[in-house]
Amino acid sequence: MTWPKMPLSAVTTKVGSGATPRGGKESYHETGVPLIRSQNVRFEGFDRDGLAFLDSQQARDLDGVIVQANDVLLNITGASIGRVTVAPEDLAGARVNQHVCIVRPQANLLPRFLSHYLASPNVQAFMMAEQSGVTRQALTKAKILDFEVPVPTVDTQQGIVAAIESHFSRLDAATATLERVQRNLERYRASVLKAAVEGRLVPTEAELAKKEGRSYEPASVLLKRILAERRRCWEEAELAKLKAKGKPPIDDRWKTKYEEPAAPDTDGLPELPEGWCWTSLDALLREPLRNGHSARESKDGSGIRTLTLSAVTLGDFSAANTKVTVALPDKVADLWLLPGDILVERSNTPELVGLSALFRGPDQFAIFPDLMIRVRTTPRVDVEFIATLMRENRVRSCWRSQAQGIAGTMPKISQDVIAKTLVPLPPLPEQQRIVNELSARLSSADAAAKNAALSDSRVRRLRQSILNWAFEGRLVRAAAEHPLFDAAVAGRR
To answer: How far apart are CA 274 and CA 204, in angstroms?
Structure first.
């Protein structure tokens, strides 16, 4: 179906963007005249979270960009370029900053029709191709005014909008269901991890020993052996260093340099099951914590493979989450990963800082960057269990609360914070049973989460297809014939 097309300059009464008040975000107020920013403009609708406010003088300075009800709002700069929505009626009188453009259509062009058209994949691709600037993405006013848009009759526009939004409402219901599934899975994971570290997931070693009429080694005894071995390894290494320097000790005074992990202060900590004990993560280390090394990316693809933060964030240590850098081999010789290494994101956004993941191999697959800390535990504990402790909410919350950083930056966690973290330690056989039970329970949750993610992706793709069909004049027929539509919606009710 062919509809007449006209440039936006011919079917709009206003196209223009605003500015950020002098003083930037520090000049915003708790109440006043709303200032719409790019973060408020979403394809899914207007997002009120983070809406800024201006005083009367600041608002007067932006009187040239006063929003009217049903204005089309288009992001014209930055990573969110092209995001578009319709201004809510209750925000009439608001202003926009320089990242948001007001597009006010004439009576022969419905705002919701225009918004959906600008959001369609073909138009979005066109916008990306039309942007100006080498270092910064931007759509200029001149380019926006030249955009050609279809202008069918108002009745036709109303029918298209109604069809799009009818289909979208069904997809929205499917998305809401998928989001509930994902939230429930996250709560399930958290509850299982909590039960694991509190001794409620499997029968305790103490309980089994009583039932079976046998003795067992409590964690306190295991910890003593770990600490004794830790000291012995330090002494052997230190003695080797002294002898290599030609300074063999004449007495035992050198042994006083050894730093014993401080006994944990358990005041205020919950009581543990019989046979468990509190200890610091430091006491369970095979070697000191170590930050990684970051170097610039190689231009020719030769060099040393280095993890990116996404490897830990996603828990995926495949080559896709690495880059090749020009790190000097001699400088990073002791940074190669070994199976059983636990990596902690010592710096990231407030939501992600402190995330950890267990590297399972292969040997010397990659080194790790400066924004990660490597944790190598003693072989006397089950490293899978220790990795579980480090993912549990209590530990994550503790680390996030102690992360240092200026507001708006990526906060950092120190090695000292991680080393002094107190963790509950069960007997070794119980650690292993907990790990096995966790694996069984979480594998089913992971499979369900993967299916939910695939379904969500399918729904998102279908939403884009609906927009393309709509402006090709074949929405009703294409949606009815498309096998993905009912598949995406059915079963989500």
So the answer is: 8
Helix ranges restricted to H, 198-300? 205-212, 219-244
CATH number of the structural domain spanning residue 18: 3.90.220.20
What pLDDT, in 10s, does the model give residues 193-225? 999 999 999 999 999 999 999 999 999 999 999
Evaluate whether residue 247 is within a structural domain: no
* Strand order through the sheet with 290-291: 290-291, 372-375, 342-345, 356-358
The DSSP element (H or E) to which 386 belongs, if any, is helix 383-391
283 three-class SS: helix
The helix (H) or strand (E) run that includes residue 480 is helix 475-481
Domain that holds residue 33: 5-151
SS3 463: helix
What's the predicted TM-score (pTM) here? 0.72
CB 426 within 8 A of CB 204: yes
Rounded to the nearest 10°, the torsion over CA 63, 64, 69, 70 is -160
Considering the domain boundaries, does residue 318 fall inside one?
A: yes
Instruction: Report whether 196 contacts 388 (CB < 8 A).
Output: yes
Q: Which two tokens stand for residue 273?
A: 């099951």
CA distances to 381, 386, 391 from 280, in Å: 13, 11, 16
Closest CA to 76 of 41, 116, 51: 41
